[in-house]
Specification:
Strand content of chain A: 5-15%
CATH topology of the largest domain in chain B: Glutaredoxin
Helix content of chain A: 55-70%
Radius of gyration of chain B: 22 Å
Mean pLDDT of chain A: 86
CATH class of the largest domain in chain B: Alpha Beta
Distance between the termini of chain B: 70 Å
Oligomer: heterodimer
CATH superfamily of the largest domain in chain B: Glutaredoxin
Structural class of chain B: alpha/beta
Largest sheet of chain A: 6 strands, antiparallel
Helix content of chain B: 25-40%
Largest interface: A-B, 75 and 63 residues
Low-confidence stretches of chain A: 299-306, 661-666
Distance between the termini of chain A: 69 Å
Largest sheet of chain B: 5 strands, mixed
Number of domains of chain B: 2
Shape of chain B: globular
Number of strands of chain A: 10
Order of helices and strands of chain B: HEEEHEHEHEEH
Radius of gyration of chain A: 27 Å
Number of strands of chain B: 7
Mean pLDDT of chain B: 80
CATH architecture of the largest domain in chain B: 3-Layer(aba) Sandwich
Strand content of chain B: 15-25%
């Protein structure tokens, strides 16, 4: 009975989404207040019914109702409770349900925080979000119903994919979806503005915290995914450029561009067209990512032949939403006036360079990801498109980007006299270069031109962010206590500095780990020792460990350096009982400056096992940097000018004035 | 240095049409991709030794299958999965090859459920000498697999000599695989 209630609630939610799309959009077009007023209650009702539906599916998982096909395929009585709850989004049907739930939550959040906005604007925004919801709910109901029953009911479920039985991967999809779906808010605002023909900077100011929040979720989601791959796949890698990863990285890059161009549109009323286009693109790439992952078009040529309906549906939906938006853009954009003009040396230009680099990076990844499709459709001669292509192209684009990251904050809006900025920054650049030359030698005893470049740019970005903060503290209310002055600095400035600092930390991490990591793959006998980068690994043997739904071979490896014990690592090889899949759990001793990483390979004979030993300098800096970027986003989104509705304009102006002063004095 | 950047101003509509045109080009590729018939694409891995890997065997997850197995004989590696409809199509062709003892066929069971894979082999027959289980698809990435099925021909030195994408038909066997295998088997190690 419960699954049927869930299914029925989903149908009601679909009907409400339909109403939420049609009535307010018509109302806004015909200026009918009652019709526009339908948007809010419809959106809230929709969320209520999606939540009921979601709760029903969760309940079916908790009580092991294997008469529901989706539960039978993705759960098992032996599965621990928290994984039963997270198994709801463990496969296709349930993850769609999570998608629409997230969309419902974001939509209701818009209804709550939009009271200060014009009524027709709100109606249009909610209408557009309703349309997206209609598309996904219809897709779920027609092709991917999670409540489908099977008869006869199996006695036991087939268990959750063991890859997903990990805390990191439990929160990874919801964070990603939060990000994907979050971009729908900016998208809806852009479309509403284009529909209404009114594109002012209020639109930009209002979208900023939403875009930043979505971007933060996506950042955390991608970081978790990467961290999980490092821990679970046993290859010591943190990014593989596989299509599924790229699908989440492309919206992130465009989202990053959007965060920056919104600042220009908000503060200077310029680049409006560009910002609108980015808002459309960020969400389009989120949809495309969903298409690529969900249709299987890239995973397997033929996986989809079993059910081409799904792929075709998403493709048509993609064509309607994205194609429709871009046509609307082509019609309306020529009439949008951007008022603020700017000169070559200005913050606008710096942000434009940032945007162009990020967009080109996105395009190269898009081309690389879809390359197999192009090749087979056009019968082109094959070239290698894989990690080497992505590594090369992406670093070539990232390095100039990091250079601009260090300069941008010191540029003033509209125009900047060069010599005002250059003196201090040249000093920082010189110190950065010195660090680039010396630090790699201290870390690894050697250096190359590329490593120097990477380390110098990382250090440059960190120092420039710290210097920018320092300058702001010095300029705030002379004579008062230092803590008071620190508190006075707007969150936006903290946010930007912390995020840019994170970029530097990330670049340093990537540079050092890719240049200086050490790997040894070897068979080890019990009692045998092996040396890597000054660390001594002693293999003490393997024992059997029994988990709730798996059994495991757990090796014990003692690591020491110069005779001092460093860590006891317990890498595992798990076999999950139901699906019989082997899974690695790497044994890792993480440190600020290095990780020591052991993965247990295969058993060779009674006393000998294959082992992979890694020494990974600065690898934690990769995720630390990414989390600092996310933290910067949180700070920026919490800036008081977004929170205070009253006196908002005055505060914002005061802050603009403050920034002008800061940059003027440098 | 006061040249004003009049970006995004005073331009016609044509520029604004560019995104939508690009998008529909992309969409048509995606559409073709949904239904495409994979034609053969020469792989960058052809001429290179097989990538190093080590995977559990399908028949016994305690035992191992690694690149060393390819040494000393000519063999095929067939990438397949139980969810792959096209694999079923080429299955009789592979079984026929195996029955004639024409060549050793290894399988790479790609992103599959082990139970389903075993059932598949019980139901449709097992042409493979050994199957490696690549549940996460990482080894598939090393091999440059981007679709299932794919079939690699590996020579006695463990070097990949040919890659066939998509279903192996009887015609492919007669015209491409068997002549190539004959030639490779006559090579001196």
């Amino acid at each position: 009975m419960i699954p049927e209630i869930g299914h029925f609630a989903l149908i009601i939610a679909f009907c409400l989404a339909f109403v939420q799309t049609l009535v307010p959009l018509l109302g806004a077009q015909t200026h009918t207040a009652q019709w526009m007023a339908v948007a809010k209650p419809a959106a809230r009702g929709q969320l209520l019914f999606i939540a009921i539906s979601y709760a029903c599916l969760t309940y079916s998982f908790i009580i092991d109702d294997f008469s529901v096909l989706y539960v039978a395929n993705n759960s098992n009585t032996a599965l621990p409770l928290h994984y039963k709850v997270s198994a709801v989004w463990g496969a296709h049907e349930g993850s769609l349900l999570l998608w629409v739930l997230m969309l419902g939550i974001w939509t209701v959040a818009v209804t709550v925080f939009s009271s200060s906005l014009p009524r027709d604007m709100v109606a249009r925004v909610l209408g557009v979000m309703g349309f997206v919801s209609v598309g996904f709910l219809l897709f779920t109901l027609l092709t991917s119903n999670p409540f489908e029953r099977i008869f006869p009911t199996p006695a036991e479920g087939r268990d959750l994919n063991p890859l997903l039985q990990d805390p990191g991967l439990v929160i990874h999809p919801p964070m990603l979806y939060m990000g994907y779906v979050g971009f729908s808010v900016a998208f809806a605002f852009a479309i509403a503005a284009l529909l209404g023909g009114k594109l002012d900077s209020i639109w930009a100011r209002w979208s900023r915290p939403w875009v930043i929040s979505a971007w933060v979720s996506l950042t955390i989601g991608i970081t978790l995914g990467s961290w999980w791959a490092y821990h679970e796949l046993g290859w010591g890698g943190w990014w593989f450029w596989d299509p599924v990863e790229n699908a989440s990285f492309m919206p992130w890059l465009v989202g990053t561009a959007l965060v920056h161009s919104l600042a220009v549109t908000d503060k200077r009323s310029s680049l409006k067209n560009w910002t609108v286009l980015l808002a459309i693109l960020a969400f389009s790439l989120s949809l495309l990512g969903t298409f690529l992952v969900r249709s299987g078009v890239l995973v397997s040529v033929h996986a989809f032949a079993t059910d081409p309906a799904r792929g075709l549906y998403i493709l048509i939906f993609l064509a309607v939403v994205v194609g429709g938006s871009l046509i609307l853009y082509a019609i309306r954009a020529p009439y949008i006036k951007s008022s603020g003009q700017f000169e070559i040396f200005s913050r606008e230009t710096a942000l434009l360079i940032n945007n162009v680099l990020l967009l080109v990076a996105t395009l190269t990844i898009l081309v690389g990801t879809l390359y197999p499709l192009f090749v087979s459709a056009l019968n082109l001669p094959s070239l290698s498109v894989g990690k080497p292509y992505f590594d090369l192209v992406f670093s070539a684009l990232t390095l100039p980007l990091v250079l601009v990251v260090g300069i941008g904050p010191f540029m003033r809006w509209k125009s900047t006299p060069i010599n005002q900025v250059s003196k201090r920054l040249l000093k920082i650049a010189a110190i950065g270069l010195a660090i680039g030359l010396v630090l790699p030698v201290m870390v690894a005893g050697r250096n190359t031109i590329l490593v120097t470049l990477g380390a110098a740019l990382g250090a440059w970005s960190i120092m420039s962010a710290v210097y920018y903060l320092f300058k702001n503290i010095r300029l705030t209310e002379h004579g008062t206590h230092i803590l008071h002055r620190i508190r006075k600095i707007p969150h936006a400035i903290w946010g930007m500095s912390v995020a840019h600092l994170g970029v530097g930390v990330f670049v340093l991490g990537v540079t050092f780990v890719s240049a200086f990591e050490q790997v040894r793959e070897l068979p080890m006998q019990v009692g045998q020792e092996a040396e890597l980068s000054g660390y001594l690994f002693r293999f003490d043997g393997v024992r059997d460990v029994q988990g709730p739904n798996y059994f495991s071979k757990q090796a014990s490896v003692r690591v020491s350096k110069n005779g001092e014990p460093v860590a006891l690592l317990l890498p595992e090889k798990r076999t999950y009982l139901v699906q019989q899949n082997p899974m690695t759990e790497a044994g890792i001793d993480s440190g600020f400056l290095r990780d020591v990483y052991v993965a247990l390979g295969e058993q060779i004979d009674d006393r000998t096992w294959g082992m992979r030993l890694y020494y990974k300098p600065f690898v934690q800096w990769i995720w630390l940097g990414a989390m600092l970027m996310a933290a910067g986003g949180v700070l920026a989104a919490s800036d008081r000018r977004y929170r205070l509705k009253l006196k908002r304009r005055r505060k914002a102006e005061a802050q603009d004035f403050h920034e002008q002063q800061v940059t003027a004095v440098s | 240095m006061s040249s004003r950047l009049r970006l995004f101003r005073d331009v016609g509509m044509s520029k604004y049409l560019l995104p939508v045109i690009l998008f529909f080009v992309l969409t048509s590729f995606l559409f073709v991709g949904l239904y495409r018939d994979p034609t053969e694409v020469s792989s960058p891995l052809v001429g290179k030794p097989v990538p190093q890997f080590s995977l559990p065997r399908l028949d016994n997850s305690e035992a191992l299958f690694s690149e060393r197995e390819f040494l000393g004989k000519v063999s095929l590696l067939n990438v397949w999965a139980s969810w792959c409809v096209a694999c079923l199509e080429e299955h009789p062709v592979l079984s026929e090859l195996a029955n004639r003892n024409a060549i050793i066929i290894y399988g790479l069971n790609y992103k599959d459920d082990v139970t389903k894979a075993r059932q598949y082999l019980v139901k449709h027959g097992n042409p493979y000498l050994v199957n490696a289980v690549d549940a996460s698809g990482r080894v598939g990435i090393e091999w440059g697999v981007y679709g299932v099925p794919e079939t690699f021909v590996v020579d006695k030195k463990g070097v990949i000599r040919y890659k066939h994408i998509g279903v192996v038909t009887q015609q492919d066997v007669d015209e491409k695989l068997l002549p190539l295998i004959g030639q490779l088997q006559s090579e001196v190690l």
